[in-house]
Each structure stands twice: as structure tokens, then as C-alpha cells.
Amino acid sequence: CLMATAEAVGVRRVLATGVLLAADLLHARMPKLINWAKKDRQATALSRFFSRELFSFNLQDYRDGLRATRTYLMMRERAVDRVRYLPRIMRSLLAPTDREQQVLPLPKPLRGLHVVVRPFRLAVKYLGRMGTRRSSGK
User: CA-CA distance, 53 to 20, in Å (whole number)?
Assistant: First the structure.
């Protein structure tokens, strides 16, 4: 059975989210699968999130990779799968992007220093957003 296989390999939430999106966006009729998928609250929340985001995609939100990483982690129901993703998270956090060069222009021989700059830039960026949300009452 599809659902048992998804459970066994650790992609239950991925499948459940996909099923709920198919039902919501494509009006797919799969009553047994839909009922099974609705039991996963996180999958239900993720399908609502993806439905809202689908037509309002903003590349800037995903440029640093943190939002995509957070979304991926929410899709994984097993802790072991989240832990396996840690090396990618670290690369995402530490790998300099063009933005670091814009913030702190360095000559080519010194661009390796952007590995040090990036975590601080991201901290300022995301902590600033949190402060803005709190002050606006969100």
C-alpha cells in the first residue's frame, strides 16, 4: 500500500502534503488518501502554506536558503532525516552568496573572509525582521 510504504521510508508527511495539495488545487478525488493525509496536522498546515505561496513566490525570500531549509525540515517527520540534513544546513548558512560581496566588497584573494561575514549578516537580517514583526504586532 502506498501509505504504508511512505511511512516505512519516512516520507509520510511529504506524501500527505502532496495529496492535500492535489485535493485543494486540482480537486483530486482520493477520499481514502485525503482522510489519511488530514490526520497529519503538520501536513495540513504545510499544504495551506504551499497553497498560499504557490502564486506569490518571491525569489528574494529564498535567496539565502534559510526559508527553503526551514520548509524542508518541516516536511520531514523523522528526527533522523532532519539530522541527516544538518550538513546541508551548515553549508547553506556558511556558503557566501553575491550578497556578501555587495555588503562587504573584498578583492578576490580576500573573499574567503565572507564565510565569517555571512552568519553575522544573516543574524542582523533575521533578527531585524523579528523586531519589525514584534513592533508591528504580528
Answer: 15
Give the whole-angstrom CA distance, residue 105 versus residue 90: 23
Task: Show Cβ contacts of residue 87 under 8 Å, excluding neighbours closer than 6 positions.
Answer: none
Q: How far is CA 91 from the centre of its chain?
A: 15
Rg (the chain; Cα; Å): 19
Q: Is the pLDDT of residue 64 over 60?
A: no
Burial of residue 136 (number of CB atoms within 10 Å: 0-12, 13-18, 19+): exposed
Pairwise CA distance, residues 120 & 4, whole Å: 44
In this structure, which long-range contacts are made by residues 5-12, counting pairs with CB atoms below 8 Å and at least 24 apart in sequence?
A: 10/76, 10/77, 10/78, 10/80, 10/81, 12/40, 12/43, 12/77
Helix (H) or strand (E) holding 70: helix 66-75
- Top pLDDT among 55 and 36 is at 36
